[in-house]
Amino acid sequence: DCVLFSGQGNHKETSPFLNNTDAVKGNDYYHDRNLALFEEELDIRPKVSSLLSGLVSYTSLSQGTTQEEAESPESSKKTASKKAPSMGTLMGVYLPCLQNIFGVILFLRLTWIVGIAGILQAFLIVLVCCCCTMLTAISMSAIATNGVVPAGGSYFMISRSLGPEFGGAVGLCFYLGTTFAGAMYILGAIEILLTYIVPEAAIFHPTNVNDGASAMLNNMRVYGTVFLTFMALVVFVGVKYVNKFASLFLACVIISILSIYGGVIKSAFEPPGFPICMLGNRTLSRDLFDVCGKTVVENNVTVASKLWELFCNTRNLTIDTCDEYFVQNNVSEIQGIPGVASGLLKDNLWGNYLKKGEILEKAALPSIHAAGKKNNLYLYVSADITSSFMVLVGIFFPSVTGIMAGSNRSGDLKDAQKSIPVGTILAIATTSLVCILSNVVLFGACIEGVVLRDKYGDAVSKNLVIGTLSWPSPWVIVIGSFFSTCGAGLQSLTGAPRLLQAIAKDNIIPFLQVFGHGKANGEPTWALLLTALIAELGILIASLDMVAPILSMFFLMCYLFVNLACAVQTLLRTPNWRPRFKYYHWALSFLGMSICLSLMFISSWYYALVAMVIAGMIYKYIEYQGAEKEWGDGIRGLSLSAARYALLRLEEGPPHTKNWRPQLLVLLKLDEDLHVKYPRLLTFASQLKAGKGLTIVGSVIQGNFLDSYGEAQAAEQTMKNMMEIEKVKGFCQVVVTNKIQDGISHLIQSCGLGGMKHNTVVMGWPYGWRQSEDPRAWKTFIDTIRCSTAAHLALLVPKNVSFYPSNHERFNEGNIDVWWIVHDGGMLMLLPFLLKQHKVWRKCKMRIFTVAQMDDNSIQMKKDLATFLYHLRIEAEVEVVEMQNSDISAYTYERTLMMEQRSQMLRQMRLTKTERQREAQLVKDRNSGLICLGSFYSDEEDEESTVPEKIQMTWTKDKYDSERQNKNNAVENFRELISIKPNKFNVRRMHTAVKLNEAIVARSHDARLVLLNMPGPPKNPGGDENYMEFLEVLTEGLERVLLVRGGGREVITIYS
């Protein structure tokens, strides 16, 4: 066989030319008789079935591989040994997000925030933070569904949307945030362990009564380091163990949440017994004494209580050594959990911000002011930090940062595009509406204000405050919250190293390269080591309230850029921006961005500045290193409207596939009066562009530039006026040359400036070429096709362009049909999508037809094509048309014969005409001794008005006889027309054209527009006329046809 097709877009051919009959070695020489028109280019434009057969391995790649890695043979061996990602929405996204959001802040700090800020302000804090994360999740969902998201999650999304500099800066910020989050969760677990579960496990003990805080910090540092080491080992052993633990940890979270709601319901009719001991209106630390009273009765004798002993330093009932405030005020006991029916809600509505060391007081209780002893302050419950609205925002925000837990593990997800949006938004909705917001109100309605403001539960005998409300026992929530925070810590230590590994593998920050390596199975060993070291820094800080604002900054910075990325892409409307998630808007992204920026400065303006400086330094470092990465970032799209800086940037290299959009060079034909002959070409261009990108409108005037300058200026003005009428935004260029084809070639080569160059040529169909004896009618057309192919430019030829709709028409129904015969870069997929952005075509539906040969599995092809379109985020009906290998019909044979006879006749007519002209010239020049030796129309493009070159020579009889003989041969040539036999190659090509045309007309005769692969012109120019006939046959009976020819590069991608 001449064409040996491997299925991977590679084939060998013994002869690249159309009319090489020596290459034929039998009737069944070609497998694909129905694709004979396209066979010369099957090496660069493979059959669709070949592309789709490779699609299985294309889409089942581990999503941790990038597109470039996927194409390399070395990486294919590695990916084969790796296990395919298998996690679904529930286990991969929803539950990790739920676990992180229902984390340490909810159990350890939410009650305190409600007590300090009051229900209204606490509700506002929670609402703003939840709005911030929901808006960010919407933006993230749009980005995540705009192509395949490999490993790296949020980092990958930002870097591919905003470029390597922003990606690296924000990716590292997010990595640091996730790492510090791991430290925060570990600190929370240690706080629960040492404060509420086994306080006696403390290694360091206070040397005096006021030294408890520093001893506790040292204990947290030691135990935190031990926990961190153990968790890092668990992660090192394997993620599968973390995932196994995850179910257990999540069960603890859910049981804890349910126990809170159970406790709230129970408190309505049977409040739990947690009495609070008050001295005047001050709250006493209950763990230091048992009886809430100044005296107790023992054996019918009133004696001093433990409380008296603590305030008076004596067991005697004398007040000489007693604290003055203790003497003046009464001791009383109030209910710590009055219950949801107690009417407590209105008392806790308003805030009660405290300074460090300020004692917790209940304003409603009577109190006589008196100076107490300083060394007795430890007996009261007091504030350990100065609180304000800003501080509370910074401490609470980490509670909602779990939204990226799922996207961080995108490399382990079976279908990241589906799982990330559904899982993340469901997790945020669940946690925000059902739990966090309702908990704010329920805590305020059930728990006494002084208990809410008691961070460590000193007033309720060192019980976890949220535990006092839970049912059936406080231990349910203590144990549950401990395992929950441990689980969230493990999740952070799992996600952060993968994030660092993804950044390191991109090689945009050279000194991080070592962290891209790991174990044989891909586990990031070195990245895990660095993560553990950075988390250790957070643990050495040892205070949950100090670590929380730090990671808030890093997360807010990341969320800000996720929103920015989505807004930029939406406003630029790049052709590749086709998120499957539709519920996004640039205004929502800007709102999310504004909230993030506001929260950064509200929670801690100096931390915000530090985070920005760090991000800025990383950005400048990557820029200085010259990150030569081309990911199709949105910043590059903005370059088109930013003059010199932009032009210089655009010069850096060809645009990424994601940024590719048709930049048009529209070739217009002008009539004798310099009017545009086919203005609908401009209408089509405006509908395709929708005001975006570059459009250059060019035309060629035949003549001498020195004589035709004024004519060129007039033509340019005419074209500008027509562009204004058709609402085409772009530039004009008119070229004056002696030959039309030379002018078109100049336009194709030299239009544009720097990176602002066209990549697509639009030209009209040469109507009336059959009727014209002048071969220039179709010769120029075919040469333009060859020029655009040589320049690697795409080509669009709208046939019957006068039937195309104007900008004022609307198609309320109908189809845009794509006939995808061979794959030449994806232009056929992209063009209908771009047209549908315009109001004329918006309501049309897209249908894609592809051709299956006898040896193709059409059912599998249809499935593969549907999968391919799913990954491209393009909605279209799919149909596979089976082309039977039928015998060549008599009609096809006759049609080919007529075509060849017509070509032969026209060739002889031109030859005869040339002979007559030459003979007349011979007679005319006989007297002067000069003879014209023009060619036998060897250059068929030479204009008739061109003066033939005259060569002085001597007239001879032999020459005269040979000229007469040529004239007599013309009669013989006409006789040969009758006995001509059609070329086998031409018969097969005609068969392809006829069969394809029958299939297209049968299914798409009523389509609003038919898009069709344009076969390439023959490599042997001798078959040019036949090529025009093939195109006519291929498009017969169709009202509007757009012939499409790719420029030899991919213009559409499944990747984000």
Automatic annotation (TrEMBL):
<dbReference type="GO" id="GO:0006884">
    <property type="term" value="P:cell volume homeostasis"/>
</dbReference>
<keyword id="KW-0325">Glycoprotein</keyword>
<keyword id="KW-0813">Transport</keyword>
<feature type="domain" description="Amino acid permease/ SLC12A">
    <location>
        <begin position="93"/>
        <end position="260"/>
    </location>
</feature>
<feature type="transmembrane region" description="Helical">
    <location>
        <begin position="220"/>
        <end position="239"/>
    </location>
</feature>
<keyword id="KW-0406">Ion transport</keyword>
<feature type="domain" description="SLC12A transporter C-terminal">
    <location>
        <begin position="679"/>
        <end position="796"/>
    </location>
</feature>
<dbReference type="GO" id="GO:0055064">
    <property type="term" value="P:chloride ion homeostasis"/>
</dbReference>
<keyword id="KW-1133">Transmembrane helix</keyword>
<dbReference type="InterPro" id="IPR004841">
    <property type="entry name" value="AA-permease/SLC12A_dom"/>
</dbReference>
<dbReference type="GO" id="GO:0007268">
    <property type="term" value="P:chemical synaptic transmission"/>
</dbReference>
<feature type="transmembrane region" description="Helical">
    <location>
        <begin position="122"/>
        <end position="149"/>
    </location>
</feature>
<dbReference type="InterPro" id="IPR018491">
    <property type="entry name" value="SLC12_C"/>
</dbReference>
<feature type="transmembrane region" description="Helical">
    <location>
        <begin position="245"/>
        <end position="264"/>
    </location>
</feature>
<dbReference type="Pfam" id="PF00324">
    <property type="entry name" value="AA_permease"/>
</dbReference>
<feature type="transmembrane region" description="Helical">
    <location>
        <begin position="377"/>
        <end position="400"/>
    </location>
</feature>
<feature type="transmembrane region" description="Helical">
    <location>
        <begin position="550"/>
        <end position="571"/>
    </location>
</feature>
<protein>
    <submittedName>
        <fullName>Solute carrier family 12 member 4</fullName>
    </submittedName>
</protein>
<keyword id="KW-0630">Potassium</keyword>
<feature type="transmembrane region" description="Helical">
    <location>
        <begin position="169"/>
        <end position="199"/>
    </location>
</feature>
<keyword id="KW-0633">Potassium transport</keyword>
<dbReference type="GO" id="GO:1990573">
    <property type="term" value="P:potassium ion import across plasma membrane"/>
</dbReference>
<keyword id="KW-1003">Cell membrane</keyword>
<comment type="similarity">
    <text>Belongs to the SLC12A transporter family. K/Cl co-transporter subfamily.</text>
</comment>
<feature type="domain" description="SLC12A transporter C-terminal">
    <location>
        <begin position="810"/>
        <end position="1056"/>
    </location>
</feature>
<feature type="domain" description="Amino acid permease/ SLC12A">
    <location>
        <begin position="370"/>
        <end position="665"/>
    </location>
</feature>
<dbReference type="Pfam" id="PF03522">
    <property type="entry name" value="SLC12"/>
</dbReference>
<dbReference type="GO" id="GO:0055075">
    <property type="term" value="P:potassium ion homeostasis"/>
</dbReference>
<dbReference type="GO" id="GO:0045202">
    <property type="term" value="C:synapse"/>
</dbReference>
<dbReference type="InterPro" id="IPR000076">
    <property type="entry name" value="KCL_cotranspt"/>
</dbReference>
<feature type="transmembrane region" description="Helical">
    <location>
        <begin position="420"/>
        <end position="447"/>
    </location>
</feature>
<dbReference type="GO" id="GO:0005886">
    <property type="term" value="C:plasma membrane"/>
</dbReference>
<keyword id="KW-0812">Transmembrane</keyword>
<keyword id="KW-0472">Membrane</keyword>
<dbReference type="GO" id="GO:0015379">
    <property type="term" value="F:potassium:chloride symporter activity"/>
</dbReference>
<feature type="transmembrane region" description="Helical">
    <location>
        <begin position="583"/>
        <end position="600"/>
    </location>
</feature>
<keyword id="KW-0868">Chloride</keyword>
<keyword id="KW-0597">Phosphoprotein</keyword>
<keyword id="KW-0769">Symport</keyword>
<feature type="region of interest" description="Disordered">
    <location>
        <begin position="63"/>
        <end position="82"/>
    </location>
</feature>
<dbReference type="InterPro" id="IPR004842">
    <property type="entry name" value="SLC12A_fam"/>
</dbReference>
